[in-house]
Amino acid sequence: MKAPTLTVVSILIFFTTATGLTGWVGPVSADMTPSQNMAIQDFLAQKHGKIDVLNRQSYPIVGGYWTTKFVTLGTHALIITAVDGTTFRGPNSDVSFVELYDGTRKLVPVISNNKLVFPNYTSDETGYLKVKVNTAGIHNMKLEFGSDSAYTGNNAAPIATVEINDSTTGNGPDLSDLDAFGTSVTSIGDLDGDGVADIAVGAFQDDGGGIATGAIHILFMNTDGSIDSTVKINDSTVNGPDLSEGDAFGVSVANIGDLNGDGVADIAAGADFDDGGGSDRGAIHIMFMNTDGSIHATVEV
Fold this sequence. Notes:
Blueprint: E1 13-17, E2 20-25, H1 34-48, E3 50-53, E4 57-58, E5 65-73, E6 76-83, E7 95-102, E8 105-107, E9 110-112, E10 115-121, E11 127-133, E12 137-145, E13 148-156, E14 181-187, E15 199-203, E16 215-221, E17 227-233, E18 249-257, E19 266-271, E20 283-289, E21 295-300
């Protein structure tokens, strides 16, 4: 008598809810290949919807923009809802809708209360949702597509402004009337190597070396906008510029990178009323800097 044989067939077991398919188990088959398995999953995603957010957490500032990137499979209504106390609409809303792009195509939503609805959304490209952030703190949105959903969130920092002037507490610049501090400003990178970018600020009417001789203040910064220390560069600075009254040194200032290759950023400063070549013909002073704000050498051009 011939021995009986057993044929294994593929079986898919689906779990469903009132709103549609939510998952499946299977296939139960000894010969199911990875490509067949992938094809089944892709079919289910196309039929019932799939959405993935590519950047789930962002850190914008108030007044700035929050962009969420996402991809989808299938054709379904894309519904975006502000959740967990976040508001979309109204004069005091946390976020305001700006635009949504399906790749390069801009779409217009149906706006309903705290939701944005994009009917029959379908795309093979990355979608971009852009909203403006109106309040500080944590904001969350839910993106629904067919029976699938995903979340995106941010933690928005408040707008902060720190004013630096003669009354700055601690280690700010020492200024006098009519110095015109702030006429020129430039980032000079992390000059002292503490991990925080520093700045150079011109005060072209500074009288430290004579009437309107001018000066530059090197401000070593802290991460909160306060000043760790200040170094003033003027006519009396060792290895600094050779100035005369009325030169207006510091009317312009620029970071010119590491010109001499010593690993330290160097600075160029204008003195537009310099008389070295004739009355008020002007000059530029190239200052080769040290990490403490002192000057290694100066070349006048």
